[in-house]
């Protein structure tokens, strides 16, 4: 790595005047750092806080990325390539500093420069507060995709919302989740560039007027009752060791004027101030739910806010190329990350028809060519719908447009399927049953040229279930793009020792060519020396995590024990409580026979619950309560430890994946669209215990069934049991182990005899068991016993671990992005 930096240094110093500002040598970095501390931060070393020092370093790194951006923009203007736009309400980036150093290839020289100044890079890395602008998988996927786009040299812009408060910080009080507001901006954000001159206006509410213009053309004017301004904030997204830098452009909402002068002059000062405060709410806070809350008006307002700003911005950039508005798709391809930005279909129609005077048919062609839609869920309750009154009051013009799109669409459906009235009702953009609502997934399907799921099973199920009718109507629109994750953050950055070992055995090309290169590790899987190094690295990662666990929770865990990890958002369908049933079953075995020879395990849980999701919050309390008892039981004697790691986020995840032995991917088959944590674990050498769900299926195919612990019903079996009337009590009646587990939880043993606390959980399992924990319990238990036995054979376990890593190359987000680029966006990497 140092050699690249040296080469760059020579180039930079010979070509530039103030080379130290962009140079990569230790001396240049040191000088930049010191100057930024004084001239940007206004601090001298003697009184500088750790945050001052962190900011000075961040500016030093940012300078170098801006230098690249300048060259990039020039290139873009000259070559005018097609640009991919990723529209997403969430980008869960994680901390920037370490990643940017890695991508620029200056981690070592920066560390050295800081050392010479008597500072530690690790200290400054720890100072960064991560931007948590997402809930979980969907937001993190957007971040991985931005990384891959930049690394592949594909010109791209991510568009989203600059939330002032991201996902809440999770604390655990008395075993319960408590939310704290995320004040990620309070010490300043050195990575963003405020662009006050890049702003767009977004209208809300009011009414429409229909009229004929001076040329006699039919036109619609929207008279809103509120207008807010969206201002751009840019974050640079560097690619790995490449010259290109892409942009993440996030919108902040502001009042159009700082005061409403009319109100001010009539003396209504407070109304004027209120107006300003209200305008800022659109980008105030990320909704902390990972499934929609029906009817939250502000959430819909956030969606139109960022979508409208983004589309207006695309039009501005496109017109600046001297092109016609109806050719917008020639400059941009826009991906809708789930339905959250799907109002874009109606908004682009409005911009083209109402504001640019383009005829409906032409505008519709343009719109369909522009958009593609990714679905991330099959759960019917999670499909986004907006009640008509809410929608119509906020977006009266969009509702008219949606009615017109729907009228034309249903005409087409009726003429291609005459007599099939129920089809028209099923696919309509408006749900007419009960309280009427707008179906956002239908809008996205109709307005897009491509629709994809995020894993093979998920894409198949989409065609069979929630989007079945659309598949029948437009089979050619549907495709699968299995998710991927970036090996830069999830291996190179978070597991540097493993990355070094891989590089020393197969060279460094794997970092950008995961699928082709990682497989070369296979030949080392039987080399005892290599296996020993592999194991030593895992052990060191486990010791580091053990220290962090102790710091955060006070719980001591044994780094020699099996690190069994289940980290993801807390959801009933993800079945964190199935693992709890397993733990209680083990506990019961020990209580019956304390001398039992069991494989020592650390059960690590982590994940946030939506603040209003009572069952998920109770699952957290159950985990911590069982932990309290198990961790302190003399009979257990430290052989089992149950840890709830608070505040699972990107920063913490970077410590957890590299230290895992076992990855828990135990959702009910057919419920998890893909999962991406499953990929991160496998890339770090954890073996998976999982169901045939989401991308688990493809991971198992890739790593081989011998290297994957499979259990549970298949999706088809789940569907069949549901259809024939699933009765969880059958399992309760016939399985004594299960009965003892549930009775113990219900008895209050885990909560000082307060038997009622977990009653809602136990009752729901016994009465409905929507996610079929009881049906999968026995299979899971037996599979976990196989895991425990396998872990005792360290040599064979290590070999499986190596094979897992060697064979998961296709789960790189680079592969996923190549598929989007080739099959959907038709964009190419820039040749330079
Ligand atoms: C929508 C409207 C109103 C309020 C909230 C929402 C909302 C917000 C976030 C709905 C859904 C989400 C997030 C969904 C999500 O993260 N899905 C996950 O996406 C991953 C990436 O494709 C998959 O790997 C996971 O399987 C899927 O659960």
Descriptive report:
The chain has 832 residues and is of the alpha/beta class. It has 35 helices and 24 strands. It has a 9-stranded mixed sheet, sandwiched between helices. Strands 21-20-19-22-23-24 form a 6-stranded parallel sheet, sandwiched between helices. α24 links the parallel β19 and β20. α10 crosses α12. It is globular, with a radius of gyration of 28 Å. The N terminus is likely disordered. Ligand 26Q binds next to α7.
Question: What is the compact description of this entry?
Answer:
With 832 residues, the protein is an alpha/beta fold. It is 49% helix and 15% strand.
Question: Which ions, cofactors or small ligands are bound in this entry?
Answer: ligand 26Q
Shape call: globular
Please state the CA-atom Rg, rounded to the nearest Å: 28 Å
Order of strands, widest sheet: 7-10-11-4-1-12-13-17-18
Which spans have pLDDT < 50 for at least 5 consecutive residues?
1-5, 7-16
Fraction in beta strands: 15-25%
Count of DSSP E strands? 24
Largest sheet: 9 strands, mixed
Terminal residue distance: 22 Å
Average pLDDT: 95
Helix content class? 40-55%
Secondary-structure-derived class: alpha/beta
Number of helices: 35
